Amino acid sequence: MKKLLRKFILFLFNESFFFDDQAKPIKKLNNKFLNLKPFKKYSFGQKNKNKSFLVINRSPGAGIFSNVTFVINYFLYSKKRDLIPMVDMENFPTIYNEKNKINYTLNAWEYYFQNLNKYKLKDIYKSKNVYFTDSNFIKGMHLDINTNNLRKNFRIIKIKKQLLKKEKNYYDKNFLKTDKILGVHFRGSTYKTARGHAFPPTIKIMKEEIKKVLNEYNYNKIFLVTEETEYLREIKKEFGNICYYYNSFRMNKLDSFKIYPRKNHRYKLGEETIIETLTLSKCDGLIFIKSNVISAAINLSKKKQNKHELFLGYNSRNKFIARWLWYIKRLLPKYIGGLKIIEK
Fold first, then answer.
1. Given Cys at both, which of 96, 154, 219, 321 links 270, Cβ 3.0 to 4.6 Å?
2. What is the pTM of this model?
3. Which domains does the chain have, with CATH numbers?
């Protein structure tokens, strides 16, 4: 008990625990749109009199594939109402926005993806009939890309060619056609305290489960995706030269969105996630807890993948309890509520 108490006290003084959950954009919302009401018609000029536009906006947004899920939902909303959808992550900045142009644009959506149609934002804001989405999901929308209707419409998401090329270069350099690759998505960081989300495994649990799957399915290489430096170090130490990973940014204690250690850091966080997701989509099997990245990888995949989902239960939806629960369960033995794999 003394040992457990000591660990708990040390945990309480971990600086990262007390940070606010919500990452913030480094750009401000355009003042022009501060007080607009969602789904109300606005007129900005006389262009396109016979057309009506829906500006899809989400500020500050969330992870890159959460934003993708958001856009697909509102794309479907626009089609039902005969509106022309346009994603605006320039005037409504997200956590990925930079102050300078990336790929010749200030629209963070267009850093990574083609927009949904031929129109330009500057033309829409001279048009007569313009509507705006809410910045949140609304009733009836789905949060998982693998939901049937969203999965059917995932094709509207067109990743920029330069990202596809970067991923292909990485893959061709590290993997052979004869390789049988296990993709490992080992989430940590903010997932430990995310309300209502699946609990991530500990390092010990993840090592044990990877070993089981390697032995049973005869994978000869691992592709690891993790945002934590410690997780990368431990998995490399355990599995040696069969463990591959993309050279993406990884955090120690501080959330990646709360520091700015390199040029175009926010942009690069999104780029690295997309490249890792594309590589996961090419793996023969995936071991994971449920996440938007995994859902996207499954949708992008052109092969039948073995799916090894780990489920350790869900975190509380109460904000205060969710900040503590994973850490408390990590300290407890399995037989009195500690973290353990649960059969679905």
1. 96
2. 0.91
3. 21-156 (no CATH), 176-336 (3.40.50)
